[in-house]
Amino acid sequence: MPNLSSLIPSTEIFKHQGYRNYLGARILISGARQMVAGAIGWQVYDLARETRSIEASAFLLGMIGLTMFLPVLTLSLYGGQVADRYNRKMILIVATIVRIAVMLGLLASTYLATALAIKTIFCLAAVLGIVNAFFPAAASALYPNLIPLEDLHQAIAWNSQSFQLAAIIGPAIGGFLFIGGLELVYGVAAVLGGLALIFLVAIQAPVQTSESQVRGWRMIKDGLSYVRDNKVVLGAISLDLIVVLFGGVTALLPVFARDILQIGAEGLGYLRAAPAIGALIVAFYLALRPFTRRVGRNMLVAIVIYGLAILGFGLSKFFWLSMLMLAITGAADMISVYVRASLIQMATPDAMRGRVSSISFIFISASNELGEFESGVAARFLGPIGAVILGGTVALITALSWPFIFPKLSQADHYNDIAAPENRITSEGK
Asked: Of 222, 217, 205, 216, nearest to 87 (Cα)?
C-alpha cells in the first residue's frame, strides 16, 4: 500500500518566499477574473435579451471578446519588450491597480440604464484588454526567477493547479454571489484584487537579465524571429490558437445556461467551473507524475479527446452530461497547457522570456477572446449548438493534421532535448 505522503505533490517549492507570494497573488487574481468573466457574460447577455433575439445577443457576447482581444493584438509585443527591459514586479503591481479600478467601474455599471450599461461594459472590457497586454508577459517571465531551475516543472504544475482551483472556486462563488446581485460579484472581485496587490508588493525578486542595450522594434523582432525559427514552440502555441479559437465554448455558456439547459445564473457558475474540475484533477496528477517522455504525442492525443468532448457538449440536452463533457475538455486542455508551458519555459532564454511570453499570450488571447468573437459570429449564423459542433470538428481535424505540419512537435520526446543551453537540467540537478 503506497505511503500517503507519496500521493501529495511536493511542497518543497514553497520554501521560496518570493514564489509563495507570487502564487498567492496568482490565485486571487485568477479567482477574481473567473468571477468577473461569468458576471460580464451574464450581464451583457441578459441586458441584450431585453430587446434582441438569442442569436443577436450571442453575437454581442462575441463582440465583448473582440473588444478585449484588440488591445492584446496591438500592444502585447510591446508588453513583452517592456517585461524584458523594466522591472517585472512593478509592471504587475501597476496592472493590478488598473484591474481593481475596472472592477469598481463594472460595479457602477450595474446601476446604469441598459444602453449605457452595455456601452460602459465594452469600454471597461477594452481596458482589461490593455491590462492583459502587459500582465501575462511580466508574470510568466517573473516566476522562473523566483525558484531554482530544477524546480521549474514543479512550479508549472503548482501554477496550473492553483489556476484550475481558482477556476473552480471563482465561478462557483460567483454563481452564489449572483443571489446578492452583480454588484456583489464585482465588489468581491475588487477586494480580491486588493489582497493580490499586497502579495505582489511583498515579492522580493532577484535582479533580472535585461537587454538594456537593445531598443524598440529590434527587441520585438528578435522575439518574433526566435518563435518563428523554433518549430516546437511555434507548433505548440499555434495548435492552441486554432483549437481554442474554434473549439472554445466559454462565450456561449450564458446561452446554454439561460435558453438551452434553462438552469439560470447559478447553473452558469457550475458550467464555468466544470472544465476547471477536470483540469484540477489532471494538474494534481501532473504534480505527482509530470510528463517527461513523449510530450508531443501526449499533447496531440489530448487535443483529440478535447474535440470529442466538445462535440458531446454541443449535442447534450442534459445538465449532468453537459457538466461531464465540459470536465473532460478541461482535463484534456490541462495536458496541452502543461506541455506547452513546459516547452516554452525550457526552450526560452531568460533574457527573451518576456517577449516570447507576450507572443504566446497573443496566441492564447486570440484563441480565447477572439475565439469568443468567432463563437458569437458562428452562433449568429449556425445557432449556438451548430457553433459548438463546428468547433469540435475543427479541433479534431487540427490534432490529426498537426503531425504533418509540425513533425518536430509530435516527435518531441524529452523537455531537455529542446531546452535552451542555460535551461538544461543536468543529471545532478534532477
From this structure: 205
Residue bearing cell 441598459: 114
By residue count, the chain amounts to: 430
Q: From residue 226, how far is each of 62, 154, 234, 298 by CA, in Å?
A: 32, 26, 9, 24
User: What pLDDT digit, counting tens, does each position of 205-254 carry?
Assistant: 766 555 555 455 565 566 667 667 667 777 777 777 787 777 778 778 88
Compute, in degrees rounded to 10, the torsion defined by CA atoms 310, 314, 315, 317: 120
pLDDT of 143 strictly over 50: yes
Q: What is the pLDDT of residue 28?
A: 92
- Residue 17 CB: number of other CB atoms within 10 A? 12
Take residue 8 and report the three cell numbers written for it: 501529495
| DSSP one-letter code for 87 | -
Query: How far is Cα 205 from Cα 123, in angstroms, rounded to an integer?
Result: 34
Q: How far apart are CA 161 and CA 88, in angstroms?
A: 23
User: What grid cell was written down for 269?
Assistant: 457558475
Task: Pick 420 or 145 by higher pLDDT.
Answer: 145
Provide, for the chain, the percentages of residues in helix, strand and coil under a 3-state DSSP scheme, each rounded to the nearest 5: 85, 0, 15
Q: Give the integer Cα–Cα distance in Å for 104 and 118.
A: 15
Residue 26 has pLDDT above 50, yes or no: yes
Q: Max alpha carbon distance in the chain (Å)?
A: 66
